[in-house]
Specification:
332 residues; alpha/beta; Quinone Oxidoreductase, Chain A, domain 1; Rossmann fold; 11 helices; 15 strands; 26% strand; binds NADP nicotinamide-adenine-dinucleotide phosphate
Length: 332
C-alpha cells in the first residue's frame, strides 16, 4: 500500500510517499480501507521530533481517519465488516490501509460523510472535553477562543455556541475572524502576529475587557501560547477558567502566579489524548454528543483545504504555515 513516511526528522519536505507492506491484522483490531484523514498540529510537531510522544523512525504520521472496515480480528465484538467508522490512531493515518484497536474505532452516523468524520475526533473531542469536563462552561458565560479559526479553535467556537455561551473569537486575519462569525461566534477581533510588544499585549487585554463590558471572559481557550497567554489571562473574569490547550505559536509562556490570586481564577491543563485512555466510556459519551450535534445541524466542521495522499506533505506544510482555516483533509 502507499503511505506517507517520515524517514528522518525535519520539515514536511523530508517526508516521502512509499510503497510499504500492508499492516498486519491483530486480535481485537480491525482493518480499515481508509477514505479520508485529517491533519492536526501534533503531526507538524511529530515529524520534527518535537511532540510529547515520539515514535521510532520510520513512521507514518497522521492521527485520525475515516473509512470502511474490511476485516475484523479475533475477539472483536461490536464492529463488523462493512461498518463505516472513524479511527483515533495517534499515528499511521496517512496511508491507504489502517489497522486500529477496536477501542479506538467508532461507528459514524449514516448521514455523515468520511471527510467530515475524519475532521471531528481530535478537534471536537479535545474541545468538548475542555469546555465540559475541564471548564464546566455554563450557559450565558463568555468564552474567549484564541486561534479561533484553527482546528481546535473553530470546533470550540461551535461547541461553545451549542452550549449557550457568548463566544468571542480572536484570530490573526479578518478572513479568519469572518469564518468564526459564520460558525456562530458572537463577536470577533484581530490580534497581531509575530512577537507581541508590551503595548500590543496591553491592547489585547484592553480589547477583551472592552468586549466583555469590563468584566473579562469567564472561560479562555488557549491553543496558541507565546505572548498571547498572559495578556489574555489578565482579562479573565473573577473565578474564570483558563484552558491550556497548546502552544501553536511556539513558546510555552511562564505566567506570574499572582494573577490567579488576584482573579480568583483557575489555570486548567487539558490533555484530551491522556483522558481518552483514563476514561474511555466518558470519551464515548462525549462522541455520542458530538455526533448528535452534527446530525442536528448544531456543528459543521469547516474543511478549508483538501489534498491527495500523494501531496500529504503539502497538507502538513499548509497547517504549519498558519494557512489552514478549520481542518485540512487528506483524501485517500
Ligand atoms: N491539549 C490537547 O489535548 C490538544 C489536542 C489537540 C491539539 N492540541 C494543540 O492545540 C494547538 C492547535 O492545534 P490545531 O490542530 O488546532 O492547529 P491549527 O489548526 O494549526 O490551529 C492553530 C492556530 O494557532 C494560531 N497560531 C498562532 N501562532 C502560530 C504559529 N506561529 N504557527 C501556526 N499557528 C499559529 C493560528 O491562528 P492565527 O493565525 O489566527 O493566530 C492557527 O489557526 C496545537 O498546539 C496542538 O498541539 C492540544
Amino acid at each position: 500500500m502507499k503511505a506517507l513516511q517520515c524517514i528522518e526528522l525535519g520539515m514536511p519536505d523530508k517526508l516521502q510517499i512509499n510503497d510499504i507492506p500492508d499492516p498486519e491484522l491483530l486480535p481485537n483490531h480491525v482493518m480499515i480501507d481508509n477514505k479520508a484523514a485529517s491533519v492536526n498540529f501534533p503531526d507538524v510537531l511529530m515529524i520534527q521530533g518535537l511532540y510529547q510522544f515520539q515514535p521510532e523512525l520510520p513512521f507514518t504520521p497522521g492521527g485520525e481517519s475515516a473509512g470502511t472496515i474490511t476485516e475484523v480480528g479475533e475477539g472483536v465484538e461490536n464492529l463488523k465488516v462493512g461498518d463505516r467508522v472513524v479511527a483515533m490512531l495517534g499515528l499511521g493515518a496517512f496511508a491507504e490501509k489502517i489497522v486500529a484497536h477496536e477501542n479506538a474505532v467508532m461507528k459514524i452516523p449514516d448521514s455523515m460523510d468520511f471527510e467530515t468524520a475524519a475532521a471531528l475526533p481530535m478537534t471536537y473531542g479535545t474541545s468538548l472535553y475542555a469546555l465540559k469536563q475541564r471548564a464546566a462552561l455554563k450557559k450565558g458565560e463568555t468564552l474567549l477562543v484564541l486561534g479561533a479559526a484553527g482546528g481546535v479553535g473553530l470546533a470550540t467556537v461551535e461547541l461553545g455556541k451549542a452550549m449557550g455561551a457568548n463566544v468571542i473569537a480572536a484570530a490573526s486575519t479578518q478572513e479568519k475572524v469572518d469564518i468564526c462569525m459564520q460558525h456562530g461566534a458572537d463577536q470577533g477581533f484581530i490580534y497581531p502576529t509575530g512577537d507581541l510588544t508590551r503595548d500590543q499585549q496591553k491592547e489585547l487585554s484592553a480589547k477583551i475587557k472592552e468586549l466583555t463590558g469590563g468584566v473579562g471572559a469567564n472561560v479562555i481557550y488557549d491553543p496558541v501560547g507565546s505572548g498571547y497567554s498572559e495578556p489574555a489571562l489578565r482579562a479573565i473574569a473573577w473565578e474564570g477558567r483558563y484552558l491550556v490547550i497548546g502552544f501553536a505559536a511556539g513558546e510555552i509562556p511562564k505566567i506570574p502566579l499572582n494573577l490567579t490570586l488576584l482573579k480568583g481564577c483557575q489555570i486548567v491543563g487539558v490533555f484530551w489524548g491522556a483522558w481518552t485512555g483514563l476514561d474511555p466510556s466518558g470519551n464515548v459519551a462525549n462522541f455520542k454528543e458530538i455526533f448528535n450535534l452534527h446530525v442536528n445541524g448544531k456543528i459543521a466542521p469547516e474543511v478549508s483545504d483538501k489534498f491527495s495522499l500523494i501531496n500529504a506533505a503539502d497538507a502538513i506544510s499548509h497547517l504549519q504555515n498558519r494557512k489552514a482555516k478549520g481542518k485540512v483533509i487528506i483524501q485517500i
